[in-house]
Design brief:
This protein has 449 residues and is mainly α. The chain folds into 3 domains: 93 residues, Fumarase C, Chain B, domain 1, CATH 1.10.275.10; 238 residues, Up-down Bundle (Fumarase C, Chain A, domain 2); 32 residues, no CATH class. The strands form 2 sheets. A two-stranded antiparallel sheet has the order 1-2. The chain has a two-stranded antiparallel ribbon with strand order 3-4. A hairpin with a 2-residue loop joins strand 1 and strand 2. Helix 5 packs parallel to helix 9 and helix 9 runs antiparallel to helix 10. The two termini are 35 Å apart. Keywords: Amino-acid biosynthesis, Arginine biosynthesis, Lyase.
């Protein structure tokens, strides 16, 4: 295959070519802008160590910036016969700058080239997903603030348990996302090491400067072991998707609650008409399809993460072509997570709280534990108070003082901890903004000729 990077003029069966190429000409379009950025940094490094002339490096960086912009705009094309984005990028360079385009691959392999492009893409996605998770956390905090004193039955085993509020309920999901935003810094640290220079997994016998490329691209360190660079295929993807699945685990519970509480039988929540769909046969239906599909997306994410783990696992050290199959589920999962966070950020403030229905469902039995505590405050041992309340419930004589006790400790219904939560959210947003600025500044340095 004359157009492939590895072609040696020997024939290749067309069916084998189609099978091995797979959907890379489509999937690699998402990697193309990152591949161009990484290639520009590589060209600058080659000139720095004397393996390229300065003029050659400048012409390559200028052409790569144009290709980067085309890829961002969706006009960059990867032809099926070109096999992948790396081949298409190099072919475009040769076409635009001539002989220097043939020198861009000096000192690297497609293996570390794609690892760098993936790492750059994952860094960008982590910051994007983090910003969207922060927006959703803010929406939950606003919901909790607006409904902090509105009664809502608390359930365990899907049975009425203790008094709660819509504020306490909304705060739970804000808190979960704040924890995920803290965890995201650990995910970022795993991505914050540059793989370029590992080549096929054993380095190259050339005086390349890996530290320079890492610093130029805004990485804090080099991923030192070239073998580990290849062994890490799937590991970093799994770390990002594992974070996304953890976020989805929190959101799935909220979606289930919304589905239940918006049923006619509960009636605690309503969805605006614009957030429902209809039936082709039943005129009265207003279906919460957005809730159900978002809930399905949470499970879909787990499936895609398992797919990445299954492909990457069970292999010996170094590179294997199996790794090609990691890209599609990874990119699909990232796109699905973006959409999920965007849709729920719109849905949370649109929920209609039905306070009267929730108040009617908050009957006296919810206050059984509260009444036992009130008796303890009068001097009874808790076990004696528990038994007394139990007898009153059985006998039908239970009449609690609903206002006797309120949970005023941090996190309780009377003290949601909203100021502290907003401080934590502001700190996470500040970290995301600063990290995004550092990455953008690094890209600016790469493109400056």
């Amino acid at each position: 295959m004359a157009d492939t990077l590895w072609g040696k003029g020997l024939p290749l069966d067309a069916a084998i070519h189609r099978f091995t190429v797979g959907n890379d000409p489509v999937v690699d379009l998402a990697l193309a802008p990152h591949d161009a950025l990484g290639s520009a940094a590589h060209a600058r490094m080659l000139a720095r160590v004397g393996l390229l002339k300065d003029a050659e490096a400048k012409s390559l960086v200028t052409a790569l910036k144009a290709l980067h912009d085309e890829a961002r705009a969706g006009t960059f094309v990867i032809r099926p016969e070109q096999e992948d984005g790396h081949t298409a990028l190099e072919a475009a360079l040769v076409e635009r700058v001539g002989e220097p385009g043939k020198r861009i691959h000096l000192g690297r392999s497609r293996n570390d080239q794609v690892q760098l492009a993936l790492r750059l893409l994952l860094r960008e996605e982590v910051l994007t997903l983090g910003a969207r998770a922060a927006e959703l956390a803010g929406a939950f905090l606003d919901f909790a603030q607006a409904h902090k004193d509105v009664a809502l039955p608390g359930y365990t085993h899907l049975r009425r348990a203790m008094p709660s509020t819509f504020g306490l309920w909304g705060m739970a999901f804000a808190e979960g996302l704040l924890e995920e935003l803290e965890a995201l810094r650990g995910v970022w640290a795993r991505l914050d090491r540059c793989p370029l220079g590992a080549a096929a997994g054993f380095g190259v016998p050339l005086p390349i400067d890996r530290e320079y490329v890492a610093a130029l691209l805004g990485f804090s360190r080099v991923q030192r072991s070239p073998i580990d660079v290849q062994n890490g295929r799937g590991r970093h993807e799994s770390a990002v998707l594992g974070w996304a699945c953890s976020v989805a685990g929190t959101l799935e519970k909220w979606l289930w609650d919304v589905q239940l509480y918006s049923m006619d039988e509960f009636g605690f929540l309503g969805l605006p008409d614009a957030y429902t769909t209809g039936s082709s046969i039943m005129p009265q239906k207003k279906n919460p399809d957005v809730v159900e599909l978002a809930r399905g997306r949470c499970r879909e994410l787990r499936g895609l993460a398992h797919q990445v783990e299954a492909v990457a696992g069970g292999l010996p050290s170094s590179y294997h072509r199996d790794f090609q199959l990691l890209k599609s589920p990874t990119l699909t999962a990232l796109g699905s997570t973006r959409e999920l966070l965007d849709v729920l950020t719109r849905l949370v403030p649109a929920l209609q709280v039905k306070a009267d229905a929730a108040a009617r469902a908050s009957d006296d039995t919810l206050y059984a534990a509260h009444h036992a505590y009130a008796l303890v405050a009068q001097g009874q041992a808790f076990r004696d108070a528990y038994k007394q309340v139990g007898r009153e419930l059985v006998e039908g004589t239970f009449r609690p003082d609903r206002g006797a006790l309120t949970a005023t400790h941090l996190g309780g219904a009377g003290n949601l901890g909203l100021p502290q939560a907003r401080e934590e959210l502001a700190a996470s947003r500040a970290w995301l903004d600063e990290t995004h600025r550092l990455v953008a500044d690094a890209a600016g340095r790469v493109w400056t000729v």
